[in-house]
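so my prof wants the structure for this chain in the tokens format not the other one, which i didnt know existed until like an hour ago. anyway here's the sequence
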Amino acid sequence: MKDCKLKYSISINSPAETVWEKMTGADTYKIWVNESWPGSYYEGEWKEGTEIKFLSLNGGGTLAELRSCTPNKNVELLHTAVINPDGSEDRDSEMAKNWIGSLEKYSLNESDGKTELTVEMITSPEWEKMFNEGWPAALNKLKEISEN
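here's what i got, hopefully its the right format
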């Protein structure tokens, strides 16, 4: 059951366009996400209706569908599978069943050249500790690279 609702926000002294570019750019994504999840990267594009793979150094990770995506404004992802290190998709294990259906939302609200970035997660309670430990550091790193 996806009843764990998590929310993280950070104020960034940069326009939404800059924050979006740093958040979704293949090279800069690695910088800020690796602050909390070392070796992470993605394959795909940030485009509504497409799938994107979020992967780790061992090749494992998650597959997500971009349900909505408006550059510089918001993105909503629905996680649809766990990716095993061999590249196969897992939808049947207990771990996969607890992860599939998780929702991840990013909202960027700009005012006077500053952007409030909010990340919301709706997931299973077992993921709460990992996200509570990881998101604040990752968002601080995104703030750092967006402001420099």
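also thought this was worth mentioning. Residues 1 and 20 are 31 Å apart (CA to CA).
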